[in-house]
Amino acid sequence: MRRILFINPFGIGDVICTLPLLDAVRRAVPDAYVGFWCSERSSELFRSDPRVQALFPVSRGDIKKISSGSAFAGMKKTAGLLWALRKGRFDTSIDLSLDWRYTNLSMLAGIRLRAGLDYRGRGRFLKKKVRLDAFDGAHIIEHYFRVLETIGISGVPGAPVLFIPESERQRARELLRSRGIDTSLPVAGIAPGGGASWGRDASSRHWPAEKFAELACRISGELRMQVVLVGDRAEKAVSAAAAAACPRIKADLTGETSLQGFAALISLMDLMVTNDGGPMHVSTAADAPSVSIFGPVDEKVYGPYPPGAERHLVIKRDLSCRPCYKGFRLHNGNCSRECLGGVEVEEVFQAAAGLARRRRDEKK
To answer: Are residues 194 and 77 in the same domain?
Structure first.
């Protein structure tokens, strides 16, 4: 039996883009023992996932602390990680970290076959390397798949699919009902935040809150859908701004669920409207019809997969300066005004209306 460790320490969206690789491994090696090393936050997505037998939730910050020779707590946690990895007896790692530290720790844990992305020469401890200067020219999932091919697993990647326990869906239904939402009637979710992995630059991926509010009012009034706001607790301020500008929003559920509960909540939506970011990836992987609004980021690389799906629509402006997020750097700080600010409510509403009509037809 092969024992395979996946390593992806990045944000929720990046981790969701690893899901097609899990499915490919299961198809190729049905009895494989699979581990996943990711951030503590992202690890919630896998707590009930039958594709993953072991979780190693360690943040990037702990790895950086140990490499700098400081922070005893970080050293202790990393030592515990090494012990746990050795106990897992992994023979192969799929390293998507872009960071030599992770590969080095994999080597110290006794993993012999270390395959991964060699980002600008940082893959010094990798045995099987896929050279990478930037994610461009293809979707990130397709870049990831090239790593699988180095260990003999090939095929065409499918769409990311989250495993959501029915118990979580039931809790999400109860939350909606407790806030006055009739779950037998159409519900639209709006996530006006997202992009937390960008830190202080997250707002450069946000469509203006006042436009989300105008959209919410139109979805409620013209499409006769119950509108709820969703998001992480760190996004409470942007959700509150949208809620204050649109009294037709029935409930603001921002920050009221765990990450797994958030995915369950989104899976119940008849329509989702999001920015580019984690909520968009959760929407597609939870199979909720979605409209996502893109600004500085290239939707052909980081958007819904596979591209062009009728169920997951992308709205963007065709500007000569976009995408301006290239080589893992944001090159234009005026995205909210010049790029995202130019996306009109009418265009987003028409896309949402089309999905809502299709959803009603599906449920007849």
So the answer is: no
From residue 346, alpha-carbon distances to 108, 189, 212, 352 in Å are 55, 18, 11, 10
Question: Looking at the domain assignment, is residue 174 inside a domain?
Answer: yes
Instruction: Determine, yes or no, domain membership for 160.
Output: no
Our count of domains for the chain comes to: 2
The pLDDT value given to residue 134:
85
Q: Across residues 292-302, what is the average pLDDT?
A: 92
Total-model pTM? 0.92
CA–CA distances in Å: residue 231 to residues 94, 234, 255, 355, 358: 30, 8, 6, 21, 25
Domain containing 171 equals 166-363
Lowest mean pLDDT among 64-78, 79-93, 203-217: 64-78
Residues 65, 22, 112, 97, CA torsion sign: negative
**How many Å apart are CA 232 and CA 212, to the nearest integer?**
17
> Does 320 reside within a domain?
yes
Q: Cα(151)–Cα(6) distance, rounded to whole angstroms?
A: 13
Nearest in space to 198 (alpha carbons), one of 8, 39, 13, 7: 13
Query: Percentage of the chain with pLDDT > 70?
Result: 92
Exposure of 131 by Cβ count < 10 A (0-12 exposed, 13-18 middle, 19+ buried)?
exposed
User: Does residue 161 belong to any structural domain of this protein?
Assistant: no
Supply the CATH number for residue 110's domain: 3.40.50.2000
Residues in contact with 269: Cβ distance below 8 Å, sequence separation at least 6, in sequence order: 187, 188, 189, 283, 288, 289
Same domain, 208 and 334: yes
pLDDT of residue 160: 98
pLDDT digits (tens, 9 = 90+) for 328-363: 777 766 655 678 888 999 999 999 999 999 999 888
CA distance 167 to 110: 38
